[in-house]
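Regression check, glycinamide ribonucleotide case 193:
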Amino acid sequence: MVLLTGHNKIKTAVFISGTGSNLKSLIKFSKKKVSPISVDLIISNNPKAIGLNYGKIYKIKNKIFNFKNKKIAEKNLLLELKKNKIEMICLAGFMRILSKNFIKKFKGKILNIHPSLLPKYKGLNTHQRALNNKEKYSGCTVHFVNSKLDSGKIILQKKIKINKYETANSLSKKILVQEHKLYPKAIFKVFNF
Ligand code: GAR
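Current build output:
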């Protein structure tokens, strides 16, 4: 096994829009000696994202991009990524769809986590839709990002049982706990650890 030190870890940007609990788990993971990545930049489309606090706590640079004009946002975002020598992107609750052009520039280097067993329940409201369909199981998926929504090659999934009295809220909490474990595992898998 190759140990990567702080200097030769893969420079990673994490994109968020909200709470940032996956960001926190990725930062904690990145600080471990065995982690192949370092989190060097936090990107948010939402200036009020609670997750931006982790930038302050862990002293990681963060930048906000207003996606109302996606073309301009992505152009500036690409410049920022280049300036910080970012090699990999982890989407962690980032609620904007990146353009084909942007994805092409980071082909095979963008990962996403989604709270369902893809290809089931792409998009929003996953938990409620799974409950409405009386699913017995749900879970989470880490996958490569391609130009179609929640559709790239699957890296890892974790399946969990839906209980009789489950609500969208309880299911979301239960799956989030698994997401925090699954994302680091998927990163290990990507780097063949
Ligand atoms: C997570 O459940 C993540 O899987 C989901 O948003 C939540 C973000 O939580 N992402 C998507 O639905 C993307 N399609 P967090 O901000 O606490 O990490």
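Comparison notes: The pocket of glycinamide ribonucleotide is lined by residues 16, 18-22, 51, 92-93, 113-115, 176, 179 (CB under 6 Å). The domain at 6-190 is CATH 3.40.50.170 (Rossmann fold). No diff flagged against the previous build.
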